[in-house]
Design goal:
The complex is a heterotrimer of chains A (268), B (275) and C (323). Chain A is an alpha/beta fold. Chain A has helices at 46-53, 80-86, 98-101, 108-119, 124-137, 143-147, 156-168, 186-203, 238-243, 248-255, 262-267, and strands at residues 4-15, 18-30, 35-39, 61-70, 73-74, 91-94, 174-178, 206-211, 223-228, 231-237. The two termini of chain B are 17 Å apart. Chain B is an all-alpha fold and 275 residues long. The chains are: A alpha/beta (268), B mainly alpha (275), C mainly alpha (323).
Chain lengths: 268, 275, 323
């Protein structure tokens, strides 16, 4: 059985302007250790799907239908406490904007240790060691110093690494990355993607990688699903999607990836 | 707009009360039950508790509190209105200048605002009134002179953001003079938050006037003000509770209704702006 | 951060000059001159004596020079002698200032202790009946005239129920009290005046706290905190609250002018021996040296409060602290 199974998920937003179907009957599954890419343009419902898995959709949004089964547990039927346990420990998420996603008045170190101590009983010292180990794994320079820093002291790339360290510190079975590189400079993007590749290889962790850019997940994804308007338009193995896409929308998206002209490719 | 008033309970309540107060003030001569100025020093008439004849009782000089309060409403409300008018004048002019011209004009005006806001305002007002003589006119002027800062800031903020808009550039291209642009083009768009501030300031002005009258530096006896009725009541606080309670309630309700309207206006304007 | 603080402190000097100027102008706008105020009604003073007096006060010199002299004297806190009892004004102020500061400090404590939980709970329960009731209560507090509220407190708690004393700071037998008895006694007498002082600011600050908290709860880092599986109480009371409290520190600067203004009224009503009452009585008695003295000190306190609030904010916000 797959690690995560999403069956017919629907999440609607009920605003004063009417009902908006952000996610409308989405189904897919993710196996253990597999990297699953969710691709679509802004507003296609990718982020809301991710939030729905973790039951973090804020009002006026609400999950209106479907099933989510993780590790044989039906997530939507869990009570608050049990769901809280799963968040951060079994399923982690890395958000797009590291600047606003980190609390500006709490040190990086404390933001990691609080997560550790919310899930397992360890001493303060042990939590600190684990946090520094996580920072090291995310390849942050001088992790002992970063531990005591506030978020605004770090650069964008470093902040994102800190977020990744936070997501990894409890070795979740599933990591959701919601456009983790979109807000970063291109060179930093490449570094962060490299980091994801390392994580994938070293920990055999399942990853749901959300993005709008096919180019980014070209060498990362095992399977891909294309979303549009709250629905999955096409899904399959990454080779299949890349080389023989069936839907016209998929073809459009693929064509939109900037390509290095052949002449330059030779020089590389 | 009228529909909104009906839908929002707090604005509705506020409007009803303020209209009620306003009418009481305007129709005071018709509504009064006794002469608010004529003292009746006979023992039976002085300090009588509320009764069918004297709705709110009588004061230490035998005067009917209800009638005095009606006339007090006239005075308190008119002081408030005129003070706000003065505030509006000063605040608008300075706010427009600061917001439209920016630069050193803005800097200078803002420094002035900061200095004025550092003052213990009440003390300043007390000083001015004591030394220049307490009278209704002085009270109006002094309240207006010390409370314009908030308004100026709001106007300035609006102007700073509005002057970058295209219609300003268009007007300039058509050769309109600065003053014309400022007052005929930008100002109408900036008025919304000004109204919010005005209603609030009216409430604050009334509070201030009643406090001053209470301290003896506002409306002078025998002219009635809600504040000075309370101050006479202070000596009889253990016996004639009506002298304290009713005028105070009147102040509370009037100011509360103004604040509620002000907040309702603010809520009305806010989401509109966001859209 | 030090540069930030230094800049704020430097602003005090021009402010004080501005304020002295305004006070000076007001005094001299009064009809007649200061000597008239003191001796005008005394028929025994001859013209010659008046002339000499004017000279002594420097009133025959040009206004600018008078102002310069005035500034020089203010710097050393020499406000002259009170017209009422001929004692140095600065001495009278020094006697009364601690009482006012005590009242102000206790009021501030009450304000923060009540308005912060009130605001936070309103924010957390936003939209609920509790929130709506609180909003109305807050507005009512705003609209209540302070002096009236003070009188109501006296009427109800002082006279009717007899729970609290309604005037004075110490009883005449105070010297028989040991320290703890003194402390209890003062706190007991502080209760009503401090409650009256706190009312309006309480309303304002709890409102501000509420919107600050709502703003904090809207931020992305709250979503991250929940996604990490933190307990909801930690999300609200650590992640959100820490951020929401930052601007509240600066709000202290808004309360201080209100507390000072309030002290004039409250101290008079409760016969509290503070600077506010001294100032009020000075004004009513045309004791203008005292008026000037109280005015300058009051303004200085306000300015000090403003700067202190700014500094506190710089200390508390890590984004400023570590730059």
């Amino acid at each position: 059985m797959a690690l995560l199974e999403v069956k017919n998920l629907s999440t609607y937003f009920f605003t004063e302007y009417g009902e908006r179907k952000a996610v409308d009957g989405v189904s897919f599954s993710v196996e253990t250790g597999e990297t699953f890419a969710l691709i679509g343009e802004s507003g296609s419902g990718k982020t809301v799907t991710a939030l729905s898995i973790l039951n973090l959709v804020d009002p006026p949004g609400r999950i209106t239908g479907g099933e989510i089964i993780f590790d044989r547990k039906p997530l939507m039927l869990l009570n608050r406490e049990d769901m809280r346990e799963i968040r951060g420990r079994d399923i982690s998420i890395v958000f797009q904007e590291p600047l606003t996603s980190l609390n500006p008045v709490i040190t990086i170190g404390e933001q990691i240790t609080e997560q550790i101590r919310a899930h397992i009983k360890v001493s303060g010292k042990e939590a600190r060691n684990r946090a520094i180990a996580a920072l090291k794994e995310a390849r942050l320079p001088s992790p002992e110093r970063v531990f005591y820093d506030y978020p605004h002291r770090l650069s964008g790339g470093m902040r994102q690494r800190a977020m990744i360290a936070m997501a990894l510190c409890l070795r979740p079975k599933l990591l959701i990355a919601d456009e983790p590189t979109t807000a970063l400079d291109v060179t930093i993007q490449a570094e962060i993607l490299e980091l994801f590749r390392e994580i994938k290889e070293r920990h055999h962790m399942a990853i749901i990688f959300i993005t709008h850019d096919f180019g980014i997940i070209a060498r990362l994804a095992d399977r891909i699903a294309v979303m549009r308007g709250g629905r999955i338009v096409e899904q399959g193995g990454s080779e299949d999607i890349f080389y023989s896409p069936r839907e016209s929308y998929t073809k459009e998206l693929l064509a939109a990836v900037p390509r290095i002209p052949d002449a330059l490719k030779v020089a590389r | 707009m009228p529909r909104y008033i009906l839908k929002n309970r707090q604005v509705l309540f506020g409007s009803i009360v303020i209209v009620f107060m306003f009418c009481s003030a305007v129709f005071a001569p018709a509504l009064k039950t006794h002469d608010p100025y004529r003292p009746d020093l006979s023992v039976e008439e002085r300090l009588r508790p509320p009764s069918r004849e004297h709705f709110f009782g009588t004061d230490d000089l035998g005067r009917d509190v209800f009638s005095r309060m009606l006339y007090g409403a006239r005075i308190s409300l008119s002081v408030g209105f005129i003070a706000v008018f003065i505030m509006l004048f000063i605040g608008l002019v300075l706010g427009v200048l600061a917001g439209y011209y920016g630069g050193w004009v803005d800097g200078a005006i803002m420094r002035l605002v900061e200095i004025m806001m550092c003052f213990p305002t009440l003390f300043l007002i007390l000083m001015i009134l004591a030394f220049l003589g307490p009278s209704i006119v002085n009270v109006m002027i002094v309240i207006g002179l010390t409370s314009w800062m908030g308004l100026a800031r709001i106007v300035r903020a609006e102007f700073l953001s509005l002057r970058e808009r295209e219609f300003v550039a268009a007007a300039k291209a058509l050769g309109a003079s600065d003053m014309r642009i400022a007052f005929r083009h930008i100002l109408p768009n900036a008025l919304a938050p000004v109204f919010v501030s005005l209603t609030f300031s009216l409430g604050a002005a009334i509070l201030l006037e009643t406090s001053l009258s209470f301290l003896g530096l506002g409306v002078q006896i025998p002219a009635p003000s809600w504040g000075n009725i309370i101050s006479t009541g202070r000596f009889y606080i253990d016996s004639a509770w009506w002298l304290t309670l009713f005028p105070g309630l009147a102040i509370l309700l009037t100011v509360l209704s103004l604040y509620l309207i002000s907040d309702g206006l603010r809520a009305l304007l806010d989401p509109r702006l966001k859209r | 951060m030090l540069g930030y603080i230094a800049r704020r402190i430097l602003l005090i000097v021009p402010m004080l000059i501005g304020i002295s100027l305004i006070t000076f102008v007001i005094i001299h706008l009064a009809p007649g001159d200061p000597t008239d105020i003191r001796y005008g009604l005394n028929p025994e003073i001859s013209e010659l004596a008046r002339e000499r007096l004017k000279e002594a006060y420097g009133l025959d010199k040009p206004i600018i020079e008078q102002f310069a002299l005035w500034l020089k004297r203010i710097v050393v806190l020499d406000f002259g002698n009170s017209f009422i009892d001929d004692r140095p004004v600065i001495a009278k102020i020094a006697e009364r200032l601690p009482a006012t500061l005590l009242l102000g400090a206790v009021s501030m404590l009450i304000i923060y202790l009540i308005s912060i939980p009130l605001g936070v709970s309103s924010a957390v329960k936003a939209g609920s009946p509790y929130d709506k009731i609180m909003t109305v209560a807050v507005f009512t507090g705003y609209a209540t005239p302070t002096f009236w509220f003070a009188l109501l407190l006296i009427m109800f708690f002082g006279v009717h129920l007899g729970w609290f004393p309604i005037s004075g700071m110490r009883p005449w037998y105070a010297e028989y009290y040991c320290f703890f008895d003194s402390l209890k006694d003062i706190l007991w007498r502080l209760a009503l005046p401090a409650a009256a002082m706190s009312l309006v600011s309480l309303a304002g600050i709890s409102r501000y706290m509420r919107s600050s908290m709502l703003e904090a709860l809207r931020q992305d880092y709250i979503r991250t905190a929940r996604a990490k599986g933190l307990k909801e109480s930690r999300v609200i009371y650590t992640h959100a609250l820490k951020n929401a409290l930052l601007p509240i520190v600066t709000i202290a600067s808004m309360i201080i002018p209100a507390l000072i203004s309030g002290s004039f009224i409250i101290e008079t009503i409760f016969a509290w021996p503070g600077m506010g009452r001294l100032g009020y009585e000075a004004i009513m008695n045309y004791d203008y040296p005292t008026v000037m003295g109280v005015g300058v000190i009051a303004t200085f306190l306000t300015l000090f409060g403003l700067v202190a609030a700014d500094v506190m904010y710089a200390v508390v916000d890590p984004r400023i602290r570590y730059d």
